[in-house]
Every structure is written in C-alpha cells, then in structure tokens.
C-alpha cells in the first residue's frame, strides 16, 4: 500500500495546482476527483473495518465524483487522511484477528481478500493519477520507476548488489 501511496505523491509533486483539476473531457475524472473518490473509499472501507461493513451508511459515493476539492492543500489533506486510515487499520491486524471475516457491501471477505480487493482498487486509481500526470507533463515527466531506455542499466545495478531484503518501494528512491 505504501508503494502506491508514494507513486501518487511523486505524481502530485510534479504537477502545478491547476493540473490537479485538468480533465481530458467532461466525462473523465481529474486527479482531484480521483483523490476524492479514493479518500471516500478508504475512509469507508478501513474505519472500524474488523467490526463494521466496509460500505458505511455515512458514505456519499456519488459525491466523490464531483468537483469538491478546490486546492492542492485540500487534495493533500484528503489524500493523507485516506492513507492514514488505511495504514492504521492495516497496522491493527495481528494473529488474533487475522482470521476475522469482514464485510464489504454485506459480502463476506477474509482479511486477506479484503486487503487484496482494496490493493487492486487503489493500484487501479493510482495508475490513473500517474497516467494523467504523464499526459500533462509530457517530455518534462520524471519517471517514477525505471526511466525509458534504462532497463539494462537498472537491472545491472540491482543484480550487482546480490540478494537483499530490500523493500519493493525502495525502487522509488
């Protein structure tokens, strides 16, 4: 999860405030709209996730796709609130509650299934953020992983270190 959080942040860092509200057309979502949706989903899914349905009664999903974020500061507040909720909930998982059955829209999930469901959902939307960012920045885009044409050099460097216990997100550093 932290890897996808970092990808989103490194995308937003490359953009001007106006870029966060750019839409390809009226039917497409801006980065701000996607962040607002992620925030609503994260707050709903991960608040009391072991004891209440992940689709909270207070969630207003349809409003998540409206232009409600007005500034980069507001976007970052929602981004961080959402991820804080996710990461806090994940940190509460232990051997005593790992086998708990939880519900999302009244459908039973193991903790692993729920995590995988949300991981796929967040990766999907963070990929959209990155893609929009790349479209906006064009030739000025700074690669978030292996720069185009540098795969051989990247792999040579990685394999020269021998096996290590590094974290997947270390590739972003």
From TrEMBL:
Domain of life according to the entry: Bacteria
The record ties this protein, via Pfam families, to: DUF1572
Q: What is this protein called?
A: DUF1572 domain-containing protein
User: Which species does the entry assign this protein to?
Assistant: Arenibacter certesii
